[in-house]
Amino acid sequence: MTNESFFADYLAASVRLAVPLAFAALGGLYSERSGVLNIGLEGMLLTGAFASAAATFYSNNVWLGVLAAILAGGMVGLLHALLSVSWRVDQLVSGLAINLVAAGLTSFLARLIFSGGAQKLPGIEAIAIPGLVNIPIIGSLLFAQNILVYLLIFLVGFTNYLLFYTHPGLTLRAVGEYPRAANTAGVSVLLVRYFSVILSGCLAGLGGAYLSLVQVKFFAEGMSAGKGFIAIAALIFGKWHPIGTTLACLLFGATEALQLRIQALGVNIPYQFLVMLPYAIALLALVGLAGKSSPPAALGLPYLKEKSE
Fold first, then answer.
1. pLDDT for 61-111, tens place per residue?
2. Which of 11, 73, 87, 155 has the highest CB neighbour number within 10 Å of its CB?
3. Is pLDDT above 80 for 242?
4. Are 41 and 224 in contact (CB under 8 A)?
5. Tell me, what's the pLDDT at 81?
6. What's the CA gap between 243 and 52, in Å, rounded?
């Protein structure tokens, strides 16, 4: 393998590993920009992965699997919204509970549906764009991807435009920064937060569908493997900005791809150290190595409407 092909292969692997992180992080962005802390991204990812695998297994149709992932992720998002927005349960506790329930429930159901073993699933194939795919290095990286990657690129641009250049985006950010002022202006804080958290679940579910239908093409217990928590780190690293967050996901994806390549080359480094690299980078992001990150002012704070409002 030439240096150029090795580098192109490494970049392609980085993108593949970053995509589920980016879907989950983009979902977390909507939730946290509205003021609702979403630690439950891990459970939403895992639920989406299981739902897409189960639906594809029974129907042999990957698009029904993708739809099932979106619906299942949205239902988990609805549960998180119900607990944290309506019932004002501590948002950290709600998210952790969702992660624990998702891990246990998907493991139990997977053993029933897949008879205790991984079942090979049909996958979502790449779509090569004629002509452009032959461009050295970037051709295979940008123009030979599956439809979920193209959808992700669109969603990042759309989210950036929506949040910073439209009235609905301003409303969402206002709810996350000054919910009482937004309510005074006639905005339904409850409705905005419900919509944002449900959308968060749908996007994380898409990330789960990518895991099971593109990356590995089967479902395995606990296959999210902490990716939801790395997505939260990417949010902080990217300072709650869609482009910055996506670039942070690419960094984490590149780190994971690097440790896999180093292991394959047989470098004399303990593999345990290499496996921990992506999580170490995420930890450094959380402690603020990338600079001080200022979250939305009302993040994690339940909104209690006063009687006079």
1. 999 999 999 999 999 999 999 999 999 999 999 999 999 999 999 999 998
2. 73
3. yes
4. no
5. 97
6. 27
Distance CA 200, CA 217 (A): 24
Both tokens of 93, joined, read 């506790």
CA distance 221 to 112: 12
Q: Is 53's pLDDT higher than 70?
A: yes
Backbone angles phi, psi at 128, to 5 degrees: -85, 130
Q: Give the model's pLDDT for residue 308.
A: 46
In whole angstroms, what is the distance from residue 255 CA to residue 274 CA?
9
**Angle (CA) 57 59 64, round 5°:** 100
How far apart, in whole angstroms, are the C-alpha atoms of residue 293 and residue 82? 28
List, as own/partner pairs, every contact residues 101-105 make where C-beta atoms lie below 8 angstroms and the sequence separation is at least 24, other chains included.
101/43, 102/40, 102/42, 102/43, 102/44, 102/46, 102/47, 102/76, 103/43, 103/46, 103/222
Judge whether 65 and 56 are in contact, CB under 8 Å. Answer: yes
Q: What is the pLDDT of residues 150-186, one digit of tens each?
A: 999 999 999 999 999 999 999 999 999 999 999 999 9
DSSP 169-219: HHHHHHHHH-HHHHHHTT--HHHHHHHHHHHHHHHHHHHHHHIIIIISSS-
Residue 68 in tokens:
């099932």
DSSP-assigned beta bridge partners for residue 127: 145
Residue type, 237: F
d(Cα 202, Cα 218) in Å, to the nearest integer? 20
The residues pairing with 128 across neighbouring beta strands, listed in sequence order, are: 144
